[in-house]
Amino acid sequence: MTVHVAFLLVANLHLLDLAGPAQVFSTANDLGYGYRLSYVAETETILTAQGIPVRAQVRWPDLGPKDLVVVPGWSRSRPRQVPAIGPETARRLRCHHADGGSVASVCSGADALGAAGLLDGRRFTTHHDLAGELTVRYPRAKIVRDVLYVTDDRVITSAGIASGIDLALHLVAGDHGPAAAARVAREMVVYARRNGHEPQESVMLRHRDHLSDLSHRVQDVIDERYADRLPLGDLARRAGVSERTLTRAFTAATGLTPLRYQQLLRLERAEHLIGHGTTVEAAARAVGFDDARMLRRLRSRAGKPAEG
């Protein structure tokens, strides 16, 4: 069976929102999993946010219940008073879903699904910067914050930009099984297929919004070697400062001590491994703990299950 994936392109779209999932389905098809891709828009030429024009067909393809419509996101620089899609496009989306088909969005593409009425009464997610705006715009929908993607009654929404790859891999797994998605991810040299409940922002991103060069340099070391034993004295010597100066500067910049930052990196990586079937004991060893006791304590503080 071949699944027809139709990408609905909106003016000022982000290239990666389109190219990421398109590459997943194209690679899956190359590997024999049966996907056909097409591109539809309200005009034949769409100018992307990155300045590259792309071509699309204005006539919608014939789609069936097994087929999928994906709406990539677009730059928010476009005037907000301009509707994301016209009434005929909204009707097409509603009809496809009513006929048993699936619809998906990446980032601000959720706005188009909302305009079509497909978020009403359903859970959805989007880029964290858009969550508040879309919650106000579509009060009958329920936002799920800080996750990569959400599925609710054949309406699949994902967070920002690169999470479209995770969404597409998830859909390939639903069609052909996790091994097929893993094969596609490996072919694309994607580091790992992330689960939908994983956070949009990693520990590395959440604690990098500061201007301390010293702290950034030390974070670079910890990010690269989080599974190693990193005594404070060694980090201070690498940074060329005293332990006291390092601790004071790092804490002021990140809100964490270097040890706590390393622990959070280890915990985040361990949760990823556990979410993909690794035991707590094996995950603990993989991220640098001598045994699972410290990992269990950290998971307990974070409100995670005692066992994985």
DSSP strand count: 10
Poorly predicted runs of 5 or more residues: none
Q: What proportion of the residues form beta strands (DSSP E)?
A: 5-15%
**How many domain modules?**
2
- Report on the biggest sheet: 6 strands, mixed
Q: H/E element string?
A: EHEEEEHEHEHEEEHHHHHHHHH
Task: Spell out the blueprint of helices and strands.
Layout: E1 3-9, H1 15-30, E2 35-41, E3 45-47, E4 53-55, E5 68-71, H2 87-98, E6 102-106, H3 109-115, E7 123-124, H4 131-137, E8 142-143, E9 149-152, E10 155-158, H5 163-176, H6 178-187, H7 203-206, H8 213-224, H9 232-239, H10 243-254, H11 258-275, H12 280-286, H13 292-301
Parallel strand pairs: 1-2, 1-5, 5-6, 6-10, 7-8
Antiparallel strand pairs: 3-4, 9-10
Structure in a nutshell:
It comes from Streptosporangium becharense. Helices cover 44% and strands 13% of the residues. It has two domains: 185 residues, Rossmann fold (3-Layer(aba) Sandwich); 106 residues, Homeodomain-like (Arc Repressor Mutant, subunit A, Orthogonal Bundle), CATH 1.10.10.60.
Tags for this model:
elongated; DNA-binding transcription factor activity; Arc Repressor Mutant, subunit A; alpha/beta; transcription; Rossmann fold; 308 residues; 13% strand; Class_I_gatase-like; transcription regulation
